[in-house]
From TrEMBL, chain A:
GO terms for molecular function: FAD binding; oxidoreductase activity. Coiled coil: none annotated. This is CO/xanthine dehydrogenase FAD-binding subunit. It comes from the Bacteria. Gene3D superfamilies: 3.30.465.10, CO dehydrogenase flavoprotein, C-terminal domain, Uridine Diphospho-n-acetylenolpyruvylglucosamine Reductase, domain 2.
UniProtKB/TrEMBL annotation, chain B:
The keyword Ribosomal protein does not apply. PROSITE patterns: 2FE2S_FER_1 (PS00197), 2FE2S_FER_2 (PS51085). It comes from Allosediminivita pacifica. The keyword Metal-binding applies. PANTHER family: OXIDOREDUCTASE WITH IRON-SULFUR SUBUNIT, OXIDOREDUCTASE, IRON-SULPHUR BINDING SUBUNIT-RELATED-RELATED. It comes from the Bacteria. Keywords: 2Fe-2S, Iron, Iron-sulfur, Metal-binding, Oxidoreductase. Pfam families: Fer2, Fer2_2. This is Xanthine dehydrogenase YagT iron-sulfur-binding subunit. Transmembrane segments: none annotated. GO terms for molecular function: 2 iron, 2 sulfur cluster binding; metal ion binding; oxidoreductase activity, acting on the aldehyde or oxo group of donors. Residues 3-80 form the 2Fe-2S ferredoxin-type domain.
Length: 277, 165
Protein backbone atom coordinates (compact mmCIF):
# COMPACT_ATOMS: atom_id res chain seq x y z
CA UNK A 1 0.00 0.00 0.00
CA UNK A 2 1.19 3.49 -0.80
CA UNK A 3 0.12 6.56 1.14
CA UNK A 4 -0.03 9.79 -0.84
CA UNK A 5 -0.19 13.22 0.74
CA UNK A 6 -1.01 15.64 -2.09
CA UNK A 7 -0.79 19.38 -1.53
CA UNK A 8 -3.18 20.56 -4.24
CA UNK A 9 -6.65 19.54 -5.32
CA UNK A 10 -5.46 18.73 -8.87
CA UNK A 11 -2.72 16.50 -7.53
CA UNK A 12 -5.25 14.77 -5.24
CA UNK A 13 -7.64 14.18 -8.16
CA UNK A 14 -4.85 12.75 -10.30
CA UNK A 15 -4.24 10.07 -7.66
CA UNK A 16 -7.83 8.80 -7.54
CA UNK A 17 -9.27 5.68 -9.13
CA UNK A 18 -7.76 2.21 -9.27
CA UNK A 19 -9.01 1.28 -5.82
CA UNK A 20 -7.56 4.35 -4.10
CA UNK A 21 -9.10 5.10 -0.70
CA UNK A 22 -9.56 8.72 0.29
CA UNK A 23 -8.51 9.63 3.78
CA UNK A 24 -9.47 12.64 5.88
CA UNK A 25 -9.31 12.17 9.67
CA UNK A 26 -9.28 8.41 9.23
CA UNK A 27 -11.55 7.78 12.21
CA UNK A 28 -13.89 5.71 10.06
CA UNK A 29 -11.25 4.35 7.67
CA UNK A 30 -8.59 3.12 10.14
CA UNK A 31 -10.69 0.83 12.32
CA UNK A 32 -11.89 -0.90 9.12
CA UNK A 33 -8.37 -1.12 7.73
CA UNK A 34 -7.39 -3.81 10.20
CA UNK A 35 -10.18 -6.13 9.17
CA UNK A 36 -9.31 -6.69 5.52
CA UNK A 37 -6.57 -6.53 2.94
CA UNK A 38 -5.08 -3.03 2.57
CA UNK A 39 -6.11 -0.85 -0.36
CA UNK A 40 -3.45 -0.39 -3.01
CA UNK A 41 -3.31 3.31 -2.37
CA UNK A 42 -4.53 5.86 0.15
CA UNK A 43 -4.85 9.55 -0.61
CA UNK A 44 -4.67 11.75 2.49
CA UNK A 45 -6.55 15.03 1.93
CA UNK A 46 -5.42 16.81 5.09
CA UNK A 47 -2.50 18.60 3.41
CA UNK A 48 -4.41 19.80 0.34
CA UNK A 49 -4.27 23.60 0.28
CA UNK A 50 -7.56 25.41 0.87
CA UNK A 51 -9.56 22.38 2.00
CA UNK A 52 -9.67 23.24 5.70
CA UNK A 53 -11.74 25.97 7.30
CA UNK A 54 -15.13 27.67 7.19
CA UNK A 55 -15.87 30.83 5.22
CA UNK A 56 -18.83 32.83 3.93
CA UNK A 57 -19.08 34.00 0.32
CA UNK A 58 -22.02 35.11 -1.80
CA UNK A 59 -24.59 33.90 0.70
CA UNK A 60 -23.06 30.45 1.08
CA UNK A 61 -21.10 29.09 4.02
CA UNK A 62 -18.34 26.81 2.84
CA UNK A 63 -17.09 24.07 5.14
CA UNK A 64 -13.92 22.75 3.47
CA UNK A 65 -13.62 18.97 3.27
CA UNK A 66 -10.71 18.80 5.72
CA UNK A 67 -12.55 20.82 8.39
CA UNK A 68 -12.68 18.90 11.68
CA UNK A 69 -15.49 18.81 14.22
CA UNK A 70 -13.27 20.80 16.59
CA UNK A 71 -12.88 23.46 13.87
CA UNK A 72 -16.70 23.66 13.66
CA UNK A 73 -16.98 24.06 17.43
CA UNK A 74 -14.42 26.85 17.49
CA UNK A 75 -15.77 28.76 14.49
CA UNK A 76 -17.85 31.92 14.89
CA UNK A 77 -21.09 30.95 13.20
CA UNK A 78 -24.63 32.32 13.20
CA UNK A 79 -27.37 30.88 15.42
CA UNK A 80 -28.77 28.57 12.74
CA UNK A 81 -25.55 26.53 13.07
CA UNK A 82 -26.17 25.75 16.74
CA UNK A 83 -27.47 22.29 15.79
CA UNK A 84 -24.33 21.51 13.78
CA UNK A 85 -22.23 22.66 16.73
CA UNK A 86 -24.32 20.47 19.01
CA UNK A 87 -23.62 17.50 16.74
CA UNK A 88 -19.90 18.42 16.62
CA UNK A 89 -19.76 18.26 20.37
CA UNK A 90 -21.30 14.79 20.44
CA UNK A 91 -19.34 13.02 17.69
CA UNK A 92 -17.32 10.43 19.61
CA UNK A 93 -14.89 12.11 21.99
CA UNK A 94 -12.70 15.21 21.81
CA UNK A 95 -9.92 12.97 20.48
CA UNK A 96 -12.22 11.93 17.61
CA UNK A 97 -13.46 15.50 17.06
CA UNK A 98 -9.87 16.73 16.76
CA UNK A 99 -9.25 14.59 13.69
CA UNK A 100 -12.66 13.51 12.33
CA UNK A 101 -14.12 15.74 9.62
CA UNK A 102 -17.58 16.89 8.61
CA UNK A 103 -17.06 15.67 5.04
CA UNK A 104 -15.80 12.27 6.25
CA UNK A 105 -18.95 11.90 8.32
CA UNK A 106 -21.25 12.39 5.33
CA UNK A 107 -19.11 10.36 2.90
CA UNK A 108 -19.07 7.46 5.33
CA UNK A 109 -22.89 7.63 5.12
CA UNK A 110 -23.69 5.75 8.31
CA UNK A 111 -27.40 5.89 9.22
CA UNK A 112 -26.14 7.02 12.66
CA UNK A 113 -23.90 9.85 11.38
CA UNK A 114 -24.64 12.76 13.71
CA UNK A 115 -23.61 15.40 11.21
CA UNK A 116 -26.13 14.36 8.57
CA UNK A 117 -29.43 15.45 10.17
CA UNK A 118 -27.76 18.63 11.43
CA UNK A 119 -26.66 19.49 7.89
CA UNK A 120 -29.96 18.40 6.32
CA UNK A 121 -31.84 20.81 8.58
CA UNK A 122 -29.56 23.52 7.14
CA UNK A 123 -30.37 22.50 3.53
CA UNK A 124 -26.72 21.65 2.98
CA UNK A 125 -25.31 20.94 -0.45
CA UNK A 126 -22.25 18.92 -1.27
CA UNK A 127 -19.56 20.32 -3.56
CA UNK A 128 -17.89 17.55 -5.51
CA UNK A 129 -14.56 17.96 -7.32
CA UNK A 130 -13.66 15.70 -10.22
CA UNK A 131 -11.92 15.57 -13.59
CA UNK A 132 -14.85 17.38 -15.26
CA UNK A 133 -14.74 20.24 -12.76
CA UNK A 134 -16.89 20.92 -9.73
CA UNK A 135 -20.54 19.98 -9.36
CA UNK A 136 -23.08 20.50 -6.58
CA UNK A 137 -25.67 18.15 -5.22
CA UNK A 138 -28.13 18.50 -2.34
CA UNK A 139 -27.07 16.46 0.70
CA UNK A 140 -30.46 14.72 0.65
CA UNK A 141 -29.65 13.37 -2.81
CA UNK A 142 -25.94 12.85 -2.18
CA UNK A 143 -26.51 10.11 0.39
CA UNK A 144 -28.32 7.36 -1.49
CA UNK A 145 -28.31 4.74 1.21
CA UNK A 146 -26.20 3.35 4.02
CA UNK A 147 -22.53 3.52 2.93
CA UNK A 148 -23.66 4.64 -0.52
CA UNK A 149 -23.02 8.15 -1.81
CA UNK A 150 -23.22 9.88 -5.16
CA UNK A 151 -19.46 9.93 -5.83
CA UNK A 152 -17.56 8.40 -8.72
CA UNK A 153 -14.16 6.83 -8.01
CA UNK A 154 -12.55 9.82 -9.74
CA UNK A 155 -14.25 12.35 -7.45
CA UNK A 156 -13.93 13.71 -3.94
CA UNK A 157 -16.04 16.01 -1.84
CA UNK A 158 -14.30 19.37 -1.72
CA UNK A 159 -16.72 21.17 0.60
CA UNK A 160 -20.10 21.15 2.29
CA UNK A 161 -22.12 24.28 1.49
CA UNK A 162 -24.79 25.84 3.68
CA UNK A 163 -27.00 28.69 2.49
CA UNK A 164 -27.01 31.69 4.81
CA UNK A 165 -30.16 31.68 6.95
CA UNK A 166 -31.80 33.18 9.96
CA UNK A 167 -33.31 31.12 12.72
CA UNK A 168 -32.03 29.14 15.66
CA UNK A 169 -30.59 25.64 15.43
CA UNK A 170 -30.69 22.84 17.98
CA UNK A 171 -29.59 19.20 18.15
CA UNK A 172 -30.39 16.34 20.47
CA UNK A 173 -28.96 12.86 20.47
CA UNK A 174 -30.35 9.87 22.30
CA UNK A 175 -27.83 7.20 23.23
CA UNK A 176 -27.48 4.40 25.72
CA UNK A 177 -25.14 6.59 27.76
CA UNK A 178 -24.36 10.26 27.83
CA UNK A 179 -21.06 10.48 25.94
CA UNK A 180 -19.01 8.56 23.37
CA UNK A 181 -22.00 6.69 22.05
CA UNK A 182 -23.55 5.85 18.71
CA UNK A 183 -27.01 7.42 18.38
CA UNK A 184 -30.23 5.49 18.90
CA UNK A 185 -31.90 8.51 17.37
CA UNK A 186 -30.94 12.13 16.82
CA UNK A 187 -32.87 15.22 15.81
CA UNK A 188 -31.73 18.52 14.37
CA UNK A 189 -33.94 21.56 13.94
CA UNK A 190 -33.61 25.09 12.62
CA UNK A 191 -36.54 27.23 13.71
CA UNK A 192 -37.51 30.78 12.86
CA UNK A 193 -39.92 32.44 15.25
CA UNK A 194 -41.96 35.56 14.71
CA UNK A 195 -43.83 36.96 17.68
CA UNK A 196 -44.15 33.83 19.78
CA UNK A 197 -45.00 31.40 16.99
CA UNK A 198 -42.98 29.39 14.50
CA UNK A 199 -42.76 31.02 11.09
CA UNK A 200 -40.58 28.30 9.58
CA UNK A 201 -39.24 25.04 10.97
CA UNK A 202 -36.77 22.65 9.41
CA UNK A 203 -36.54 19.30 11.16
CA UNK A 204 -34.39 16.28 10.37
CA UNK A 205 -34.12 12.91 12.09
CA UNK A 206 -31.32 10.34 11.95
CA UNK A 207 -30.95 6.68 12.97
CA UNK A 208 -34.65 6.03 12.34
CA UNK A 209 -34.37 5.32 8.59
CA UNK A 210 -31.61 4.06 6.28
CA UNK A 211 -30.65 7.68 5.59
CA UNK A 212 -31.56 10.65 7.79
CA UNK A 213 -34.71 12.42 6.56
CA UNK A 214 -36.34 15.82 6.65
CA UNK A 215 -39.86 15.74 8.10
CA UNK A 216 -41.54 18.11 5.64
CA UNK A 217 -45.12 17.29 6.64
CA UNK A 218 -44.35 18.03 10.26
CA UNK A 219 -42.48 21.20 9.31
CA UNK A 220 -45.62 22.50 7.63
CA UNK A 221 -47.84 21.50 10.53
CA UNK A 222 -45.57 23.42 12.90
CA UNK A 223 -45.98 26.74 11.11
CA UNK A 224 -47.83 29.09 13.46
CA UNK A 225 -47.27 26.91 16.53
CA UNK A 226 -46.31 28.32 19.93
CA UNK A 227 -43.96 26.50 22.32
CA UNK A 228 -46.95 25.13 24.22
CA UNK A 229 -48.49 23.66 21.07
CA UNK A 230 -45.35 21.90 19.80
CA UNK A 231 -45.58 18.65 21.82
CA UNK A 232 -49.22 18.08 20.79
CA UNK A 233 -48.51 18.68 17.12
CA UNK A 234 -45.50 16.35 17.17
CA UNK A 235 -47.42 13.67 19.08
CA UNK A 236 -50.24 13.69 16.54
CA UNK A 237 -48.15 14.01 13.39
CA UNK A 238 -47.97 11.35 10.75
CA UNK A 239 -44.23 10.66 10.28
CA UNK A 240 -44.08 8.42 7.20
CA UNK A 241 -40.36 9.10 6.64
CA UNK A 242 -39.40 7.28 9.81
CA UNK A 243 -38.96 3.53 9.39
CA UNK A 244 -36.94 2.49 12.44
CA UNK A 245 -35.56 -1.02 12.78
CA UNK A 246 -34.60 -3.29 15.66
CA UNK A 247 -30.84 -3.37 16.14
CA UNK A 248 -28.29 -3.87 18.90
CA UNK A 249 -28.83 -0.36 20.18
CA UNK A 250 -32.63 -0.25 20.48
CA UNK A 251 -35.86 -1.78 19.27
CA UNK A 252 -37.92 -0.21 16.51
CA UNK A 253 -40.80 0.26 18.94
CA UNK A 254 -38.61 2.13 21.42
CA UNK A 255 -37.22 4.34 18.68
CA UNK A 256 -40.69 5.10 17.33
CA UNK A 257 -41.86 6.25 20.73
CA UNK A 258 -38.70 8.03 21.91
CA UNK A 259 -38.15 9.95 18.72
CA UNK A 260 -41.34 11.99 19.10
CA UNK A 261 -40.25 13.23 22.50
CA UNK A 262 -36.81 13.97 21.11
CA UNK A 263 -38.31 15.93 18.19
CA UNK A 264 -40.55 18.02 20.44
CA UNK A 265 -37.70 18.78 22.82
CA UNK A 266 -35.32 19.76 20.04
CA UNK A 267 -37.83 22.17 18.51
CA UNK A 268 -38.57 23.62 21.94
CA UNK A 269 -34.81 24.02 22.56
CA UNK A 270 -34.50 26.01 19.36
CA UNK A 271 -37.47 28.20 20.32
CA UNK A 272 -36.10 28.80 23.78
CA UNK A 273 -32.52 29.30 22.50
CA UNK A 274 -30.52 26.95 24.60
CA UNK A 275 -26.85 27.83 24.57
CA UNK A 276 -25.15 24.81 23.05
CA UNK A 277 -21.51 25.82 23.05
CA UNK B 1 8.00 1.88 -0.69
CA UNK B 2 9.38 2.74 2.73
CA UNK B 3 8.64 6.35 3.54
CA UNK B 4 10.80 8.14 6.02
CA UNK B 5 9.43 10.79 8.35
CA UNK B 6 10.86 13.23 10.83
CA UNK B 7 9.13 13.72 14.15
CA UNK B 8 9.83 15.61 17.32
CA UNK B 9 8.99 13.29 20.18
CA UNK B 10 9.03 14.72 23.69
CA UNK B 11 11.31 17.49 22.47
CA UNK B 12 13.75 15.23 20.65
CA UNK B 13 14.00 15.24 16.85
CA UNK B 14 13.86 11.74 15.36
CA UNK B 15 14.02 10.43 11.81
CA UNK B 16 12.03 7.25 11.38
CA UNK B 17 11.93 4.92 8.39
CA UNK B 18 8.55 3.20 8.07
CA UNK B 19 8.63 -0.27 6.55
CA UNK B 20 4.81 -0.36 6.38
CA UNK B 21 2.81 2.82 5.73
CA UNK B 22 -0.05 1.31 7.74
CA UNK B 23 1.85 1.46 11.03
CA UNK B 24 -0.01 3.53 13.60
CA UNK B 25 1.60 6.11 15.82
CA UNK B 26 0.72 3.86 18.76
CA UNK B 27 2.60 0.86 17.39
CA UNK B 28 5.49 3.06 16.34
CA UNK B 29 5.86 4.50 19.85
CA UNK B 30 5.55 1.21 21.67
CA UNK B 31 7.32 -1.20 19.37
CA UNK B 32 9.90 0.86 17.52
CA UNK B 33 10.74 3.87 19.66
CA UNK B 34 10.85 2.18 23.06
CA UNK B 35 8.10 4.40 24.50
CA UNK B 36 5.64 1.86 25.95
CA UNK B 37 4.02 4.34 28.36
CA UNK B 38 1.25 4.93 25.82
CA UNK B 39 -1.17 2.00 26.19
CA UNK B 40 -3.20 -0.04 23.73
CA UNK B 41 -6.70 -0.84 24.93
CA UNK B 42 -9.10 -1.26 22.03
CA UNK B 43 -6.95 -0.24 19.04
CA UNK B 44 -10.03 1.41 17.47
CA UNK B 45 -10.61 4.78 19.06
CA UNK B 46 -13.05 3.72 21.72
CA UNK B 47 -11.08 3.75 24.97
CA UNK B 48 -8.56 6.60 24.92
CA UNK B 49 -5.73 4.56 26.52
CA UNK B 50 -3.52 5.57 23.59
CA UNK B 51 -4.10 9.33 23.86
CA UNK B 52 -1.07 11.50 23.03
CA UNK B 53 -0.67 15.13 21.98
CA UNK B 54 0.07 15.84 18.31
CA UNK B 55 1.01 19.48 17.81
CA UNK B 56 -0.66 20.16 21.15
CA UNK B 57 -4.00 18.49 20.34
CA UNK B 58 -5.07 15.24 21.93
CA UNK B 59 -5.64 12.38 19.51
CA UNK B 60 -5.99 8.62 19.66
CA UNK B 61 -2.59 7.34 18.51
CA UNK B 62 -4.22 4.03 17.47
CA UNK B 63 -6.23 5.99 14.86
CA UNK B 64 -3.29 7.94 13.49
CA UNK B 65 -1.02 6.63 10.78
CA UNK B 66 2.58 7.52 11.55
CA UNK B 67 3.13 8.27 7.87
CA UNK B 68 0.69 11.21 8.08
CA UNK B 69 2.74 12.88 10.82
CA UNK B 70 5.84 14.06 8.96
CA UNK B 71 7.06 17.18 10.75
CA UNK B 72 4.72 16.82 13.72
CA UNK B 73 5.49 17.35 17.37
CA UNK B 74 4.39 14.49 19.64
CA UNK B 75 4.13 14.51 23.41
CA UNK B 76 3.66 11.23 25.27
CA UNK B 77 3.37 10.44 28.98
CA UNK B 78 7.15 9.94 29.06
CA UNK B 79 7.63 13.58 28.10
CA UNK B 80 5.56 15.26 30.80
CA UNK B 81 7.74 15.29 33.92
CA UNK B 82 10.66 17.68 34.20
CA UNK B 83 13.36 15.33 35.45
CA UNK B 84 12.17 14.19 38.88
CA UNK B 85 9.49 16.84 39.06
CA UNK B 86 6.07 15.54 38.10
CA UNK B 87 3.76 17.46 35.79
CA UNK B 88 0.91 19.06 37.81
CA UNK B 89 -1.59 16.62 36.25
CA UNK B 90 0.55 13.63 37.21
CA UNK B 91 0.92 14.98 40.75
CA UNK B 92 -2.82 15.56 41.06
CA UNK B 93 -3.60 11.99 39.89
CA UNK B 94 -1.35 10.59 42.62
CA UNK B 95 -2.64 12.99 45.26
CA UNK B 96 -6.27 12.05 44.52
CA UNK B 97 -5.97 8.29 43.92
CA UNK B 98 -7.24 8.82 40.40
CA UNK B 99 -6.50 5.24 39.31
CA UNK B 100 -6.62 1.67 40.43
CA UNK B 101 -4.84 -0.72 38.04
CA UNK B 102 -3.27 2.22 36.20
CA UNK B 103 -3.73 0.89 32.68
CA UNK B 104 -5.84 3.79 31.47
CA UNK B 105 -3.83 6.37 33.42
CA UNK B 106 -1.28 7.54 30.82
CA UNK B 107 -4.15 8.17 28.41
CA UNK B 108 -6.22 9.88 31.10
CA UNK B 109 -3.32 12.15 32.02
CA UNK B 110 -2.50 13.08 28.41
CA UNK B 111 -6.17 13.73 27.76
CA UNK B 112 -6.38 15.94 30.86
CA UNK B 113 -3.32 17.91 29.76
CA UNK B 114 -5.04 18.47 26.39
CA UNK B 115 -8.33 19.40 28.06
CA UNK B 116 -6.69 21.95 30.35
CA UNK B 117 -4.87 23.63 27.47
CA UNK B 118 -8.11 23.77 25.45
CA UNK B 119 -9.39 25.91 28.31
CA UNK B 120 -13.09 25.25 27.75
CA UNK B 121 -13.89 23.20 30.85
CA UNK B 122 -12.30 25.22 33.66
CA UNK B 123 -12.87 23.42 36.96
CA UNK B 124 -16.54 22.64 36.27
CA UNK B 125 -16.90 18.91 37.06
CA UNK B 126 -19.65 18.34 34.47
CA UNK B 127 -17.55 19.93 31.69
CA UNK B 128 -14.54 17.92 32.84
CA UNK B 129 -16.53 14.68 32.68
CA UNK B 130 -17.68 15.56 29.16
CA UNK B 131 -14.18 16.56 28.07
CA UNK B 132 -12.70 13.37 29.51
CA UNK B 133 -15.41 11.10 28.07
CA UNK B 134 -13.07 9.72 25.39
CA UNK B 135 -11.08 8.01 28.14
CA UNK B 136 -12.67 4.90 29.57
CA UNK B 137 -11.54 3.54 32.92
CA UNK B 138 -12.20 -0.16 33.39
CA UNK B 139 -11.68 0.27 37.15
CA UNK B 140 -14.16 3.18 37.23
CA UNK B 141 -11.82 5.60 38.99
CA UNK B 142 -13.86 8.40 37.43
CA UNK B 143 -14.58 10.18 40.70
CA UNK B 144 -10.89 10.58 41.54
CA UNK B 145 -10.06 11.45 37.93
CA UNK B 146 -12.55 14.32 37.88
CA UNK B 147 -11.25 15.68 41.18
CA UNK B 148 -7.63 15.33 40.02
CA UNK B 149 -8.36 17.24 36.80
CA UNK B 150 -10.15 19.97 38.77
CA UNK B 151 -7.23 20.29 41.15
CA UNK B 152 -4.61 20.28 38.40
CA UNK B 153 -6.57 22.93 36.49
CA UNK B 154 -6.65 25.21 39.53
CA UNK B 155 -2.95 24.61 40.29
CA UNK B 156 -1.92 25.32 36.72
CA UNK B 157 -3.97 28.51 36.54
CA UNK B 158 -2.44 29.64 39.84
CA UNK B 159 1.10 28.92 38.62
CA UNK B 160 0.41 30.77 35.37
CA UNK B 161 -0.73 33.79 37.36
CA UNK B 162 2.34 33.67 39.63
CA UNK B 163 4.59 33.38 36.59
CA UNK B 164 2.91 36.38 35.04
CA UNK B 165 3.19 38.45 38.22
C1 LIG C 1 -14.61 5.74 18.74
C2 LIG C 1 -15.40 6.38 17.64
C3 LIG C 1 -16.57 7.05 17.96
C4 LIG C 1 -17.33 7.66 16.96
N1 LIG C 1 -18.46 8.30 17.32
C5 LIG C 1 -19.24 8.89 16.38
C6 LIG C 1 -20.45 9.56 16.75
O1 LIG C 1 -20.79 9.66 17.92
N2 LIG C 1 -21.19 10.11 15.75
C7 LIG C 1 -20.81 10.03 14.45
O2 LIG C 1 -21.53 10.56 13.60
N3 LIG C 1 -19.68 9.40 14.07
C8 LIG C 1 -18.90 8.84 15.00
N4 LIG C 1 -17.74 8.17 14.63
C9 LIG C 1 -17.40 8.06 13.21
C10 LIG C 1 -16.41 9.10 12.66
O3 LIG C 1 -15.56 9.59 13.67
C11 LIG C 1 -17.10 10.28 11.99
O4 LIG C 1 -17.94 9.80 10.97
C12 LIG C 1 -16.08 11.27 11.38
O5 LIG C 1 -16.72 12.49 11.10
C13 LIG C 1 -15.45 10.74 10.11
O6 LIG C 1 -14.55 11.69 9.61
P1 LIG C 1 -13.06 11.32 9.16
O7 LIG C 1 -12.46 12.58 8.66
O8 LIG C 1 -12.34 10.65 10.25
O9 LIG C 1 -13.36 10.31 7.98
P2 LIG C 1 -12.41 9.23 7.30
O10 LIG C 1 -12.33 8.04 8.13
O11 LIG C 1 -11.16 9.86 6.85
O12 LIG C 1 -13.32 8.95 6.01
C14 LIG C 1 -14.61 8.39 6.12
C15 LIG C 1 -15.11 7.93 4.74
O13 LIG C 1 -15.32 9.03 3.88
C16 LIG C 1 -14.42 9.00 2.78
N5 LIG C 1 -13.99 10.39 2.62
C17 LIG C 1 -13.49 11.20 3.60
N6 LIG C 1 -13.33 12.44 3.13
C18 LIG C 1 -13.70 12.42 1.83
C19 LIG C 1 -13.78 13.41 0.81
N7 LIG C 1 -13.43 14.69 1.03
N8 LIG C 1 -14.22 13.04 -0.42
C20 LIG C 1 -14.60 11.76 -0.65
N9 LIG C 1 -14.57 10.78 0.28
C21 LIG C 1 -14.13 11.12 1.51
C22 LIG C 1 -13.35 8.01 3.13
O14 LIG C 1 -12.82 7.40 2.00
C23 LIG C 1 -14.13 7.04 4.00
O15 LIG C 1 -14.86 6.17 3.21
C24 LIG C 1 -16.93 7.57 15.61
C25 LIG C 1 -15.74 6.91 15.29
C26 LIG C 1 -14.97 6.32 16.29
C27 LIG C 1 -13.71 5.62 15.92
S1 LIG D 1 -6.29 2.00 22.02
FE1 LIG D 1 -6.67 3.85 21.00
S2 LIG D 1 -8.58 4.43 21.74
FE2 LIG D 1 -8.36 2.46 22.58
S1 LIG E 1 -7.32 2.53 36.59
FE1 LIG E 1 -7.74 0.57 35.79
S2 LIG E 1 -8.55 1.07 33.88
FE2 LIG E 1 -8.47 2.99 34.81
Amino acid sequence: MTLHRPESLDEALSLLGGGAVVLAGGTDVYPGLRDGPPPSRMVDLTRVAGLRGISLRDGLWRIGAATTWTDVLRAELPACFAGLKGAAREVGSVQIQNTGTVAGNICNASPAADGVPALMALDAQVEVAGPEGPRRVALEQFIRGPRNVDLRPSEIVSAVLVPEATGQGAFRKLGARKYLVISIAMVAAVVEVSGNAISRARVSVGSCSPVAVRLRGLEEALTGATVAEVPGIVAGADLPGLTPIDDVRASAAYRREAVRTLIARTITDAMEVRDVT
Amino acid sequence: MSPSISLTINGEARAVALDDPRVTLLDLLRERLDLPGTKKGCDRGQCGACTVLVDGRRVNSCLTLAATLDGAEITTIEGLALGEELHPVQAAFIENDAFQCGYCTPGQIMSAVGLISEGSAGDDPERIREGMSGNICRCAAYHGITIAVQEATRNMIRTDKEDAA
